[in-house]
């Protein structure tokens, strides 16, 4: 199921036009640009993805009829992709990590260099949520840089310390080399959802 299908399902569920929801669903599926495998859902189809979406789009959006929670839109996306509540916990991603990619020294250096920077909280959010250093792969990475570009000003992005780029990793490298993809989320879209999308399109 692609982000356009998810947008239609949001219109059915919450009201309004599908295009109102498209930016949010496109963001949640943007991890596919960095790892073109169904396992990409382990990156943003979770509680961190919801927090990142709220940072970008706000707590709510107006669909022309009423306010709709961005968190609810993200989690409905996850449910439509057949992701369980357990898998929506960002810790699920980390339990499939087979290598300690980030070291304590990395954390200390980044904390020192980013102190007082507007991006500090954004970058350390996954670590604050989990207490796991490897959670930094969501923000100190090519994917993380893309998310930052949507949450802070260009001038602040340019002023990120060199250490951020030095320690940044490739999401594709991590996912293919360090994750047990046999335990990744397997796509299994419910036929009833596909039917709803097709019926909406045929109107």
Listing every helix as H and every strand as E from the N terminus to the C terminus, the arrangement reads HHHHEEHHHHHHHHH
Query: How many helices in DSSP terms?
Result: 13
Q: Structural class of the helices, strands and pairings?
A: mainly alpha
The separation of the N and C termini measures 20 Å
Radius of gyration, in Å, reads 17 Å
Question: Which key features would you list for this structure?
Answer:
single chain, 203 residues, mainly alpha, two-stranded antiparallel ribbon, 13 helices, 2 strands, 55% helix, 3% strand, globular
Provide structural commentary:
This protein is mainly α and 203 residues long. It has two domains: 3-93 and 186-201, no CATH class; 99-177, no CATH class. Helices cover 55% and strands 3% of the residues. It is built from 13 helices and two strands; from the N terminus they run H-H-H-H-E-E-H-H-H-H-H-H-H-H-H. The chain has a two-stranded antiparallel ribbon. Strand 1 and strand 2 form a beta hairpin. Helix 1 (3-14) packs across helix 13 (191-201) and helix 4 packs across helix 5. It is globular and about 55 Å long. The mean pLDDT is 93.
What can be said about this structure in brief?
The chain has helices at residues 3-14, 22-28, 41-44, 47-57, 70-80, 90-95, 104-114, 120-130, 142-151, 154-158, 162-167, 171-177, 191-201, and strands spanning 60-62, 67-69. By secondary structure, it is an all-alpha fold.
